[in-house]
Amino acid sequence: MVDIDWPADFGNWLDRLEADARAGDEHSRLMLVFTARALDQLRNLSEPPDQEEETATLRWVRQSRRYPLWRVSHAYHPEVAVRLICWFPPDTGKAVVALFVRGEAMTEPENTMFVRGNEHLDRLLSDPQLAAEVAQAHEAAEEMDRAYAMNLAMIRKAGQMTQVEVARKLGVGQGVVSRLENRNDMLLSTLYDYLMATGADSASIVVTVHGSRIELDLGQLRHTHPHQRSA
């Protein structure tokens, strides 16, 4: 379990959101559900996340002057989009909510007072209806995480390689490999080079046309066009 700290203004915003939700405002109710879900996800982490193990709902954003910043999100909803920005100070067992997006911006001036939020979250989730809605939001988020995990990173992990090791073989930086693993489109030559760098013995694409199964050897295609630029 992780302790959650947030700016006092963030706690005040949560109180107002809860009051509006109890008064019957549906948008506030949705915002409260997804915010509580994000905070609950952070609290239930066993350890700070690793950049190579990010998920769809917990993703590395950038490196600040002191700590890596992470974004917590949720499965798509047509009416709301809740994004929490946070960091994990080393050796503290804490997650610090630094910024709330799609609502009020929470900055980090030197005189900002941070407070512990676990008890506040416990109180929110003591509401059976809210807890049930948060549980449903967790299920949707977990499904999104499972779909996100079914990408090129699965092949790299099967080869027991890190992004840094693959990057070294490709002659690029680790950030390039991270972006590559989350792209929706790429050249076949890029795909082949990545697969070979992960230790794949061979790589092919299987296409079925009118019941006929056709297998294309990516290696052969790659060497047929040796001057094709990877992208």
UniProtKB/TrEMBL annotation:
Q: Extract the Gene3D superfamilies matched here.
A: lambda repressor-like DNA-binding domains
Q: Which SUPFAM superfamilies match?
A: lambda repressor-like DNA-binding domains (SSF47413)
Q: Which GO terms describe its molecular function?
A: DNA binding
Provide the HTH cro/C1-type domain boundaries.
Answer: 152-205
One Pfam family here: HTH_3
- Matching PROSITE patterns: HTH_CROC1 (PS50943)
Q: From what superkingdom does this record's organism come? A: Bacteria
Task: From the UniProt annotation, give the residues forming the signal peptide.
Answer: none
| UniProt name for this protein | HTH cro/C1-type domain-containing protein
Q: Which organism is it from?
A: Acrocarpospora pleiomorpha
What does UniProt list as this organism's lineage?
Bacteria, Bacillati, Actinomycetota, Actinomycetes, Streptosporangiales
